[in-house]
Recover the amino acids of this structure.
């Protein structure tokens, strides 16, 4: 699990990291701290965090603006605001904030938030992929689309791409029941990440435009409508 804390007060960041170190002694949990919104955004674009704690009142970029930028990059990241001003709650709903915590951080409240997100991650379906840096767990909601490249497949997320040995047909068989659809011999997309379809093209959530085979056009529309109906209940 990857956690980020963003606050312009160094003491608060240090105290927060001490709390998480004391509560969770796990090599699977990484906590990074940032003193400004731009610094967090730069790292987030390289690889998304699962949970971010954001101070609302920061000089360079306030927490609300930062949350809007993060939400534009990821629908999955859990956002928690750190503040003593309840009037910010309405703004928090606009970026689908998980909750608010008052400062200074209370260890039990921090633990309750982290445990909730951990449970959410455990319930999400995932796949393991083998990269040059070793085996890696990838949650299905992170995947935008998968493309075929010679003897490899490239798994694309909002923040990164992973080239792994594999066969597109194997991924199609495995992921179709999980809301994926093969729109072209070279592309398998997550239906939840399709922003719109226009003629023989599918526009993904990140703006990537992918070709749709003529034989797949009608079936893609059917799959999208079925997915939306299923997801609504």
């Amino acid at each position: 699990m990857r956690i980020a804390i963003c606050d312009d007060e160094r003491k608060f960041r240090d105290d927060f990291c001490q709390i998480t170190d004391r509560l969770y002694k796990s090599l699977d949990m990484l906590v990074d701290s940032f003193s400004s919104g731009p610094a967090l955004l730069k790292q987030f674009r390289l690889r998304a965090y699962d949970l971010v704690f954001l101070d609302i009142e920061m000089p360079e970029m306030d927490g609300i603006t930062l949350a809007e930028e993060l939400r534009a990059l990821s629908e999955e990241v859990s956002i928690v605001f750190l503040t003593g001003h309840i009037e910010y709650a309405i703004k928090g709903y606009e970026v689908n904030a998980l909750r608010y915590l008052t400062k200074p951080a209370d260890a039990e409240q921090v633990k309750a938030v982290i445990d909730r997100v951990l449970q959410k991650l455990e319930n999400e379906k995932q796949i393991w992929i083998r990269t040059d840096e070793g085996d890696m767990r990838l949650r299905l909601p992170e995947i935008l689309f998968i493309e075929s490249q010679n003897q490899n497949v490239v798994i694309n997320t909002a923040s990164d791409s992973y080239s792994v040995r594999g066969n597109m047909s194997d991924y199609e068989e495995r992921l179709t029941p999980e809301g994926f659809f093969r729109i072209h011999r070279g592309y398998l997309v997550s239906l939840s990440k399709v922003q719109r379809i226009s003629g023989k093209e599918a526009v993904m959530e990140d703006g990537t435009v992918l070709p749709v085979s003529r034989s797949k056009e009608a079936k893609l529309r059917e799959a999208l409508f079925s997915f939306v109906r299923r997801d609504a209940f």
Observations:
- Residues 107-123 form the longest helix (17 residues).
